[in-house]
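discrete fold record:
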Amino acid sequence: MPTRIILVDDHPITLIGMRCLLEADPRLTIVGQAQDADGLQALLKTHACDLLITDLMLAGAQQADGLQMIQRVRRHYPQLPVIVVTMLDHPALVRALLDLGLRGLVSKRGLLTDLPRAILNSERKPFLSHSFEQ
């Protein structure tokens, strides 16, 4: 059975790109996508998924703070693996995100192979794009 994924990003072209990249792998299926935190919350209530892939900062959402959004997801769905895809790379933010138990942190400036590698990562430590490695 393929891994069921929800994608979240406020940029439609980024969503399309991630979807195309991931749907090329038969082990993965996209079950929903949203462009803001409110849309994400609605999807999580109505769509079973095995993995959440989300941008960190979402424009126009009531919860524009991505760290708070991830904390909320963690409170309500503690077992749901989360991969964050972002352009932000501030060391304190990276540390705060990793402390939330992410499965991966992928740079939008990274390689096309980074996101699939993060999804398929079976190691105990989270996958980090090269620019996030400390």
In short: Strands lie at 3-8, 28-34, 51-55, 82-86, 104-107, 127-128. The longest helix spans residues 12-23. Residues 97 and 129 are 14 Å apart (CA to CA). The mean pLDDT is 90.
